[in-house]
Write a structure and sequence with these properties.
alpha+beta, Creatine Amidinohydrolase, Chain A, domain 1, Creatine Amidinohydrolase, 2 domains, six-stranded mixed beta sheet, three-stranded antiparallel beta sheet, 21 strands, about 35% helix
Length: about 350
């Protein structure tokens, strides 16, 4: 079933006669077509993709479940949407309340002059469940990023800077035909590794832990992986911390199954870290869903009451970060099935000492 049809089937739950989709990623989800502008309208058994002349030819070649309509600007877009709604006697329209700006909402509301129903949750819910085809695309993205990690691993030394290593990875992402990096790589070494989202600096890679968090976007789909290495031999506490994080990750993954609460997955991992005496040094959640965006719903944290349905693709990334000393994070990507889980990350997790 196409995603346009999935959206169409979900609309009655939100009491929408139609649905307008303007967010770039949601348009990609619905149509499989990527563009920096445009809008998708779904009403009844029909759908229309409104786009300007930069994309009309490509859109007509790519989009199979919607009629492509040429527009010139936002006002022209809204007027043409209004004409379709009037021709089809549409009385209410769902919109992306978290994506549409207030100024745009006012303009749409004034011109359309029909009931506008907040319906972003409709799309969030559908995007939370990945099909096997979606998963295969994500695995391709994962393999590309892993290939780059394995290529740069022999290059790592104390003569290169954190920024040098990040730049080398980005270059190779693009060389191997990724759309882009999924996010700016995190490359932090020594005492900088205690910063979960530290920014690669111009300092040379130092002895101690080296955390590398990386991912690519391939055909729209994101990957996300973290590995912590050690430059030089680790001391006993460093080994203990690394082993604790690995055990916490394994405990969280073991707790995953269709229908589990995200908070329960987080608790399974967090308890391991707390029991080891490092509870104060694990400040973020266990994981986040990933797909066409690197951060999606549902999530697994102490603040989340989300249910993880079958089809969820979610990261498993606990960490321990001791300020001014060092940090460790290990991250895999997990697919939750009807009967269990699949770990789509294939990089080894034993501590690599360089």
């Amino acid at each position: 079933m196409s995603n346009i049809n999935r959206i169409r089937q979900a609309m009655p739950e939100y009491k929408c006669d139609a649905m307008i989709i303007t967010d770039q990623v949601n348009r990609l989800f619905a149509t499989g077509f990527s563009s920096s502008a445009g809008a998708l309208l779904i009403a009844g058994e029909s759908a229309w993709f409104f786009i300007d002349s930069r994309y009309t030819e490509a859109a007509k070649a790519s989009i199979k479940d919607a009629q492509v309509v040429l527009i010139t600007n936002e006002k022209d877009l809204i007027e043409k949407v209004k004409k379709v709604l009037e021709d089809n006697s549409i009385k209410s329209i769902g919109f992306e309340d978290k994506s549409l700006s207030y100024a745009s909402y006012q303009k749409w509301s004034e011109i359309l002059d029909i009931e506008m129903i907040p319906a972003q949750k409709l799309l969030i819910g559908l995007r939370a469940v990945k099909s096997r085809t979606d998963l295969e695309n994500m695995i391709k993205s994962q393999r590309l990023s892993e290939k780059v990690f394995e290529e740069v691993l022999p290059m790592i030394c104390t003569d290169m800077t954190e920024k040098d290593l990040a730049a080398e990875m980005i270059y190779r992402f693009l060389k191997y035909n990724a759309d882009d990096k999924a996010f700016n790589p995190i490359v932090v070494s020594g005492s900088n590794s205690s910063r979960p989202h530290g920014v690669p600096g111009t300092e040379k890679i130092s002895n101690g832990f080296l955390t590398i968090d990386f991912g690519v976007k391939l055909d729209g789909w994101c990957s996300d992986t973290t590995r912590t290495l050690c430059v030089g031999e680790p001391d006993d506490e460093m080994v203990k911390v690394y082993d604790t994080v690995l055990k916490a990750q394994e405990s969280g993954i073991k707790a995953m199954h269709a229908g589990v609460k995200g908070i329960d997955v987080d608790t399974a991992a967090r308890t391991v870290i707390e029991d080891a005496g490092y509870g104060d040094f694990f400040g973020h959640g266990f994981g986040h869903s990933i797909g066409l965006e690197v951060h999606e719903s549902p999530g697994a944290s102490q603040l989340s009451e989300d249910i993880l349905p079958a089809g969820t693709v979610i990261t498993a990334e606990p960490g321990i970060y001791i300020p001014g000393r060092f940090g460790v994070r290990i991250e895999d990507v997990i697919y939750i099935t009807e009967t269990g889980i699949e770990n789509i990350t294939k990089l080894p997790k034993e501590l690599i000492v360089l």
